[in-house]
Amino acid sequence: MLAVFELKTGETVDHKMYMLRNPWGFEEPSIAWASDDSAWTEDYISQVPLSVNPLDANSEGIFFVESTDFQTCFQDYHIGHLRDGYDNFWYDQEKDDSRGSETYSISVPAQEGDLYFSVETYF
Prior knowledge:
This protein has 123 residues and is mainly beta. The protein has one domain. It has helices at 42-46, 67-73; strands at residues 3-9, 12-21, 62-66. It is globular, with a radius of gyration of 18 Å.
């Protein structure tokens, strides 16, 4: 989940939206608010956060879901961070039954800013 925002006409909230990113692919769900949906007016496009253009956002795996659809389609979600220069690196070691401690390292760029990462384990 990259952002939660509202699409308004004047002061009236027309739609409550979720901006999501599928990190494993570029396929867009066949629902309202797809990149080819005529509901995306110039006014609505200008209200999308993070300078994302919803008409070509799917090239980055980004898609949009209205709150009513989100609440019926997703039971689990993660908050994500999208920044300039975002790099997606995936490391997966299956069948690692060792009981010792594993050590992993990363190289942090020599510039100021935030570093976001997640660590997940298998059951």
